[in-house]
Amino acid sequence: MQRNTSIMIYNNILETIGNTPLVKLNKIASEIEATVLAKIETTNPGNSIKDRMALKMIEDAEARGDLKPGGTIIECTSGNTGMGIAIAAVVKGYRCIFTTSDKQSKEKVDMLKAAGAEVIVCPTNVEPDDPRSYYSIAEKLNNEIPNSYWCNQYDNPSNTVAHYESTGPEIWEQTEGKITHFIVGVGTGGTISGTGKYLKEKNPDIKIMGIDTYGSVFKKYHETGEFDKNEIYPYITEGIGEDILPKNVDFDIIDLFEKVTDKDAALYTRYLAQQEGILVGNSAGSAMAGVIQLKDHFKPGDVVVVLFHDHASRYVGKIFNDEWMRERGFLDDELKVKDIIAKKNNKSFISVEPKMSVREVLNLMKDKDISQLPVMSNGDIVGAVSETSVLNYVLENPFNHAESKVEKVMGEAFPMVPEDLPCSQLSRFISKKIPAVIAKDKAGSLHIITKYDIIQSV
Ligand SMILES: Cc1ncc(COP(=O)(O)O)c(C=O)c1O
């Protein structure tokens, strides 16, 4: 599988897989005293490392007789493995059907289709054994379609072997055996287990560090031996973390797992482009953030290799889209609700009670020069009154409005929003009918945020 760089013409695109560059990181890792090198897998024909194992799984299946001419390849894939398989299938003449989750970038799915694959998008937030999950659907297709072969990258040993045979030796040779730490995101586990096994065989002192994400089971399982379902929840980072224990994760090879947040993974993906000119994907950002988090493990003279799995082009509508980043609160430059609270001149939270009279409310509004008021009962927000609603009531009831109670006039309570909410998100709540929102700060105090406050703060 290793690409021979001395030849000028390759017989087909599959021969160009592997032999990817190792590049020194100069700015992004400046706080680390060790040399930090990036193994950049984007030069593979499918723009990801997964080309390596995709071809290996197919070639091994052919050699065993599991995949025969004219056969159909089935796989659960977040896109990159699919792209590797699709490319190999085009060259070798197989049909491909992929199941993927609805969390994956649309770009990834479209690219798979472009390479001739059929793609079935399945829901993310279901148990792996749910009949709708992408594991279950792949299994079903494999049982139903004659002459089909399900690669099953999670448990297929060829996945790990591909990296043992190619990624590991490349890194060893490129660093002339000087590598001290290997850091990489973990999904199926093939990359870390195969590369790590090869490197540890060469030098058992090399530390193998896996990057995990919040919402995945790996770190806790590695540290305690417990498969804790409470660790599982939906997350945004693509390509790494699992809610299962794939056979390809060799926990004995891995020295430690480090978890990285969705936000840091996204931000570091951007920093790699901005500071190093390296256009890579979401899991690369996660791995890079992990390297920074782990900086105390590295000393001067160490050679740290971090692996970047795939290309930035698959994330243009996500990580590289400001709106997408803002909606998730990933951009720090954004004004938040708490910034508006900080800028308010009058921070007192004035409210009225349901049994107060409309006259009292009108007086309060006049005295304090306020246009809307929350209605509270026993410490709970139960409604709201606004200048418009009071005025309408007074006009409709010119003779008996004064002693009427607030509960007759009040409308729905103003929505509660978190104080960390980016202000761009306030437009989802504020409207003609809803002139204000309420936020609770860390000390537990309530604040009303009106259209006026928003205008004043920008
Ligand atoms: C973008 C990306 N990053 C990381 C990984 C994890 O690699 P592995 O499955 O070898 O653990 C994958 C696997 O699909 C991936 O597509």
Task: Give the topology, please.
Elements (H helix, E strand, L loop, with lengths): L21 E3 L10 E6 L9 H15 L7 E5 L3 H13 L2 E7 L4 H9 L3 E5 L11 H11 L3 E3 L6 H18 L6 E5 L4 H13 L4 E7 L4 H7 L31 E5 L1 H15 L5 H12 L9 E6 L13 H6 L9 H7 L14 H11 L3 E6 L2 E7 H10 L9 H4 L6 E3 L17 E5 L5 E5 H7 L1
Parallel strand pairs: 2-10, 3-4, 3-6, 4-5, 7-8, 7-10, 8-9, 13-14
Antiparallel strand pairs: 1-2, 11-12, 14-15
The structure holds pyridoxal-5'-phosphate.
Q: What hetero molecules are bound to the protein chains?
A: pyridoxal-5'-phosphate
Structural class: alpha/beta
Mean pLDDT rating: 92
Total of domains:
3
Percent helix, as a range, is 25-40%
Q: How many angstroms does the end-to-end distance come to?
A: 57 Å
What would CATH call the class of the largest domain? Alpha Beta
Coarse shape: elongated
What do we call the CATH topology of the largest domain?
A: Rossmann fold
Tally of strands: 15
Number of helices: 15
Largest sheet: 6 strands, mixed
Strands of the largest sheet, in order across it? 1-2-10-7-8-9
What is the alpha-carbon Rg in Å?
A: 28 Å
As residue ranges, the low-confidence spans are: none
